[in-house]
Model the fold of this input.
Amino acid sequence: MAELNKAESKFVYVTYIRTTAEKLWRALMEPEFTRQYWADTTQECDWKAGSVWRLLKPDASVADSGEVVEIEPHKRLVLKWQNHMFPEMTAEGFSRLTYEIEDKGDSLKLTVTHEMDKKDSKLIGAVSNGWPHILSSLKSLLETGESLEETRHWPKGM
Amino acid sequence: MGADMDKVFKALAAPERRLLLDRLRASNGQSLSEVCAHLDMTRQAVTKHLKTLEDASLVVCIWQGREKLHYLNPVPIHEIGERWIGKYERGRLRALGELKKKLEEENNGRIEQG
Done:
């Protein structure tokens, strides 16, 4: 649509999960959880504002890295995020990932926003294929104890 | 999950609302005026449909200054897929989808050439 000329790329994902904020918070960070729903990856970070953040592939190489911008336990986490697997995406610089958790009574609303101040970002386009899988799997893991099969392994050839 | 899924199916069961989702898929994060542009629907109708989509969590609204921007949330549709598509069917369904797409493209090409 030509009339829209936004200087940004942004996707927003929302899922409602029946769990506690403490459990969801751990599931977003700790490797024993992320390995199950986020393609066997591990995050390396001490989870303090200003700390270095890394997303490691199963072979321990760095897929993405950045920095913790804001952290408010059980509520909000903002990361600077740069890809290291594809040169054209690395060249785009930092994107911004935000997790927000809101209590909606019988469930928690998890909003994940991934954005970049750049039109038609390749990184934001590429991750937009992955987030719905990852978030559905995270929901399944927390509600049923089992993540979705397709998200338990790093994709072949990547 | 039952009640939430009812909302998703009801929201998807109107061509006007699927059109709005297509619009957001083509360009994510639009204001109400942007969504309304070039649409054969009144502003009131669009507002009502967007509200139904928002209640079903298919559309997520984010305020940017004084503007309310609408984003397509694909997660509920993905969850529907996960609910009924088994892990072993996925590959075959994808192959079938590709085949259908390819055959239809070929057909269209022939009609255009003819």
Q: What stands out?
A: Chain A has a mean pLDDT of 92.
